[in-house]
Design brief:
two-stranded antiparallel sheet, Helicase, Ruva Protein, domain 3, alpha/beta, Rossmann fold, five-stranded parallel β-sheet, Arc Repressor Mutant, subunit A, 49% helix
């Protein structure tokens, strides 16, 4: 029998939990060709939400283009991948050269097929890429949509990473091309909330109020309870509601960790066909042990000031970290120094920030620190 809980990858269909309101809103915004910012902490299921919505509108003449910006180390790499996907999704393999000649004629483009049979296009230009070439690519989605009488939804996942591609004013360049595209929906999704909030909410930023902003919150306990209860009982594992509630609370209502803990508990309980509350503590301890070596390696790479601050936030929480009371209690040093350390830890994704509270995106790492790491 197959484990019904999946983690570590995006999920759709029966493996995706609830989010009915978010699905309806995102679906409507896509079909209305809005420019949407989707903001959440890591492991909240934003990619799964996007893929779920895209799967539900696949019959409505909407072509999806999905790019994860964490995959690119240069602006040219990003443009090459973007161009390749736009062409791949718009024509068949044996018509690619004809399509290029009709739609992007005049650009120097190298064309080949990769090892799995997918078209790979690359611009025959060195960086910096000229504004003229860039403009041809950014205008291409609207040209394709009009030519083929369809809509496109373009997803830029981890969109904040575009700031690292070393193209001056990339936000302004992109907005100037997409703001008048009426047949294209854009989803700018990301997990570094402070950067995305600044992009979309600061008046001096190009993406200021470009469209709807959706903040992905934790899933309510009642909805999660029904989801995991059905999967445990449907595969013959009995447990009281208190067990399911504890799974959700230990996982802090975060979809990734609910799925992870449930997955491991299913493996643990499938033989005896029963789970009790103490099993959760045992399996959670096993997970901490399983990841301990990785955490030790991460910890060894951190300088002392970062270790001290992470330990303080693990033990005392992340509210009012720069207050005199907190700094004195934690023996952290001067506020200016702690502020720089906080910014560095957020930049490197060890911490995230929600308004004035800092927190660990990885709750296993936090619990490992609390368990007594030196």
């Amino acid at each position: 029998m197959r484990n019904p809980f999946i983690y570590g990858e995006s999920v759709v269909g029966e493996h995706f939990c609830d989010r009915d309101a978010e699905i309806r809103k995102l679906k409507m915004d896509i079909l209305n060709c809005q420019k949407i910012f989707l903001i959440s902490s890591r492991r909240m299921g934003k990619t799964s939400l996007i893929r779920t919505v895209i799967s539900q509108i696949s019959s409505k003449n909407v072509t999806p283009i999905f790019l994860d910006l964490e995959e690119f180390s240069s602006y040219r790499e990003f443009l090459n991948a973007y161009l390749s996907l736009l062409v791949e999704k718009s024509t068949s393999k044996n018509k690619i050269l004809k399509f290029i000649g009709q739609v992007v004629s005049g650009l120097r483009i190298d064309f080949k097929i990769d090892e799995v049979g997918r078209p790979m296009l690359s611009l025959g230009y060195a960086e910096p890429i000229s504004a003229k070439v860039e403009s041809r690519i950014f205008n291409l989605p609207e040209i394709i949509a009009k030519k083929q009488n369809k809509k496109l939804v373009i997803v830029f996942d981890e969109f904040q990473e575009i700031l690292n591609l070393k193209r001056e004013n990339i936000e302004g360049a992109l907005r100037s091309h997409i703001q008048h595209q009426r047949n294209i929906a854009y989803i700018f999704a990301g997990s570094k909330k402070h950067l995305l909030n600044e992009m979309v909410n600061s008046q001096d930023k190009p993406f200021y109020r470009i469209g709807p902003v959706m903040y992905l919150q934790k899933i309510p306990e009642t909805q999660f309870l029904e989801f995991i209860k059905e999967k445990f009982t449907g595969t013959g594992i009995k447990a009281k509601n208190e067990v399911f509630n504890k799974i959700i609370n230990v996982s802090e209502h975060i979809p990734y960790y609910v799925q992870m803990l449930s997955h491991e508990l299913w493996d643990f309980g499938i033989t005896k066909r029963k789970l009790v509350e103490k099993d959760i503590e045992q399996v959670f301890s096993q997970l901490l042990h399983q990841y301990s070596q990785n955490f030790h390696l991460e910890w060894s790479r951190l300088i002392l000031s970062k270790r001290q601050l992470l330990k303080a936030i693990a033990l005392y929480g992340g509210k009012q970290v720069l207050s005199n009371k907190y700094l004195k209690r934690s023996n952290l040093g001067l506020p200016s120094s702690v502020r720089r350390t906080l910014l560095s830890l957020v930049k490197d994704a060890y911490l995230d920030r929600d308004e004035d509270e800092y927190f660990f995106p990885d709750i296993l790492f936090r619990e490992w620190i609390k368990s007594g790491v030196k």
